[in-house]
Amino acid sequence: MEKHRINITHVRDNPYQTREDYGDLSGLSSSIKRFGLVQPLPARKADSGYELIFGSRRFRALKEAGLDKVDIDVKEVTNQEMALIALCENTHRKDLNPVELARAYSVGMKVSGLEMDEFAKVVGASITKVRSYLSILNLPDRVLKSDKYNAGELVGLARLHELSRTLSIEMEDVLEDRSLSAPFLQEVVEACARIYKTSLPEKKKIELCGKVLWEDYSKLGLRQEHQITEFGKHLISNALIEYEERLRKTEKARAALARESRVRHVSDIPNYDRRVDRAIALLKKTDTSVGRLYKEGVYKHASNKTKNRFDYWIKKLVGGLEKVLSENERLGS
Predict the structure, then answer these.
(1) Overall number of domains in the chain
(2) Which helix (H) or strand (E) holds 43?
(3) What angle do CA 86, 89, 90 make, to 5 degrees?
(4) CA 204 vs CA 196, 284, 291, 316: distances in Å
């Protein structure tokens, strides 16, 4: 062990430190100004200067106190040890937010090279917890940078994101509109996952998941979240019966058409409903996207050139829709 007193600018934080919010350091900074550091900060030699092993809050408090010198204990530590030390320092702090913990797990696993089960033992967490937190990092930056979601909500959003990005966006809207307790949220996500395991078409899956997400569960009491599962199973059962009936009708129609010489391939069979359904799905996505542009102020801050392009296509779309609606009115009259 080597003790040194060096310029604070020659020391940088642990490169594997993933913590972003260090909280209020004013009290610690005042204490350091008055009494100094009780113990030197552990550090290792780097290519240029030194790297802190642990003690990031004290290191930042020193900077806030305006001190230009720092006492360090120089030790020999490997990259793997540095990563695990930073990880342990982070995971044992109660105020660490879920995204920071997820990033700490990610860096720790990458540098340590440990399998998930061994890594989980090292950090004192279950494999399920480690896997769930790592999945959070697949979410969009706008979600990760937001501070309005708790750990359970982020894990739920990540699970839905794996199933469908459309679902995770819809879940964001749900969470903005109402709050769901952890058990209820977990059941909602599991119900959607169960729907996605079926053989139903993607469009139908999203439709059923939407019903699960937006259903009003306020009348359910404590420990009644299992009813969400039953609701989801009921939706699946009805949808499968309807879907299988449509398949039977489709197969019957194909068989009849196949007997006609003009039909040589399945693509020769017109499926008008499917084409219209696809157009409906695109219109729904467009409606959601345009709504978000205005709600989040994206359109307002766009360049004039981009706005003109956007306005052109909106007008073209509206014009086409007006032709469809007027034609329907003419046929219906």
Answers:
(1) 3
(2) strand 41-45
(3) 85
(4) 10, 14, 23, 29
Q: Which structure tokens are listed for 291?
A: 């709504």
104 and 149 belong to one structural domain: yes
Q: Are 90 and 101 in contact (CB under 8 A)?
A: yes
DSSP single-letter state for residue 172: H
Tokens matching residue 327:
């034609």
In tens digits, the chain (333 residues) has pLDDT values of 567 788 888 888 888 877 776 767 788 888 777 777 777 888 899 888 899 888 788 888 888 888 888 888 888 888 888 877 777 776 666 567 889 888 888 888 887 777 888 888 877 789 999 999 999 999 999 999 888 899 999 999 999 999 999 999 999 999 998 888 889 999 999 999 999 999 999 999 999 999 999 998 888 887 888 899 999 999 999 999 998 888 888 887 777 655 654 545 555 556 677 778 888 888 888 888 888 888 888 888 889 999 899 999 989 988 888 888 887 777 664
Phi and psi (nearest 5°) for 126? -75, 155
- CA–CA dist 96, 193 (Å, integer): 29
Name the token pair of 325.
């609606």
Residues 87 and 72 in one domain: no
Unique residue bearing structure tokens 């420990």: 223
Cβ atoms 61, 25 nearer than 8 A = yes
Could you give the 3-state DSSP secondary structure of residue 72?
Answer: strand
> Does a structural domain hold residue 284?
no
What is the model's pTM?
0.56
Within this chain, do residues 128 and 226 fall inside the same structural domain, yes or no?
Answer: yes
3-state secondary structure of 234: helix
- Domain range for 114 is 83-238
